[in-house]
Amino acid sequence: MLVTRVERLHGAAPRADGRLRIFSFAVEATVDGPVDARSGMVVNLAEMKAELRRIVVEPLDGRCFNGEAGVPALKTPELVAREIWNRLDGRLCGLPLHRVRLRETGQTIAYRRRGEETMEITRVFEFSASHRLHSSRLSDAENRNVFGKCNNPAGHGHNYVLEVTMKGAPGSSGELVPAADFDRVVNEAVVDAWDHRHLNSDRPEFRDVNPTAEEIARVAWARLEKPLAAITPGTARLHRVKLLETARNHVEYFGPQGDGE
Ligand code: NI
């Protein structure tokens, strides 16, 4: 069973242009182990909290990650994630470390290493669009029956949240995908194209595609896969498109050959 403890970590790193990049992460450390028959626990959470603070928070929090005064040089969040893994793996309550995640507003980095290194970066985007659920492969009566009020001819709107995940190994810059390039590609291919549009009538890609959440996720994947591969300095490729239509409804797509998480 997986058990996660979350701690806050703040820091700064010098950028190439001489300015500082400020970090403010929620650090999630996740261990994997059996539930003890007597205590009913995988791990004593008070002990996990104390060790996480001693091994990660105490030496790193509030520091400039510039390679001086015993603080490692960590110029990207990807490198911070790897450093935290290296500090915790095999040392956190004697249990195998399963994953380290760093969450910031709009971005999450997940890291694990079992043999090969696996790094994921997820960035979050938003767009507002209207759609009408209507399939040309169904009769009008069938459409009304299947889609109900979502078949309303004038359509209806959603504030969509799109999470895009890239997975692979970072390049020599320590970045999986440069954040500014990541945002530019997703904004050009999806957000700017669809924001404040009626998907059925304004967008040719949905002329013959019923814009359900599933189909929107598939179309987003097709528009993002190549341009995102073109901006990665390492081996990262598009891994997941998650589309939240409402806070209570979302779909996740791992590509035409995707085999899930
Ligand atoms: Ni809808």
Q: Describe it for me?
A:
- The protein has 261 residues and is of the alpha+beta class.
- It has 2 domains: 2-114, 2-Layer Sandwich (Tetrahydropterin Synthase, Chain A), CATH 3.30.479.10; 122-253, Tetrahydropterin Synthase, Chain A (2-Layer Sandwich), CATH 3.30.479.
- The chain has 6 helices and 10 strands; from the N terminus they run E-E-H-E-H-E-E-E-H-E-H-E-H-H-E-E.
- The chain has helices at 45-60, 77-88, 140-147, 179-194, 199-202, 213-230; strands at residues 2-14, 20-32, 63-64, 97-104, 107-114, 116-131, 156-168, 197-198, 237-246, 249-253.
- Strands 1, 2, 3, 4, 5, 6, 7, 8, 9 and 10 form a 10-stranded mixed β-sheet that branches.
- Strand 4 (97-104) and strand 5 (107-114) form a beta hairpin.
- Helix 4 runs antiparallel to helix 6 (213-230).
- It is globular, with a radius of gyration of 22 Å.
- The model has no long low-confidence stretch (mean pLDDT 95).
Distinct helical segment count: 6
CATH architecture of the largest domain: 2-Layer Sandwich
> How large a portion of the residues is in β-strands, by DSSP E?
25-35%
Number of domains: 2
Outline the low-pLDDT stretches.
none
Name the overall outline: globular
CATH class of the largest domain: Alpha Beta
Quaternary class: single chain
Distance linking N and C termini? 17 Å
Instruction: Please state the structural category.
Output: alpha+beta
The counted number of beta strands is: 10
Strand and helix order: EEHEHEEEHEHEHHEE
Kindly identify the CATH topology of the largest domain: Tetrahydropterin Synthase, Chain A
Helix content: 25-40%
**What is the arithmetic mean of pLDDT?**
95
Ligands in the model, by name, code or SMILES, are:
nickel (II) ion
CATH homology group of the largest domain: 6-pyruvoyl tetrahydropterin synthase/QueD
- What does the main sheet amount to? 10 strands, mixed
Task: Kindly provide the radius of gyration, computed on alpha-carbon positions and rounded to a whole number of angstroms.
Answer: 22 Å
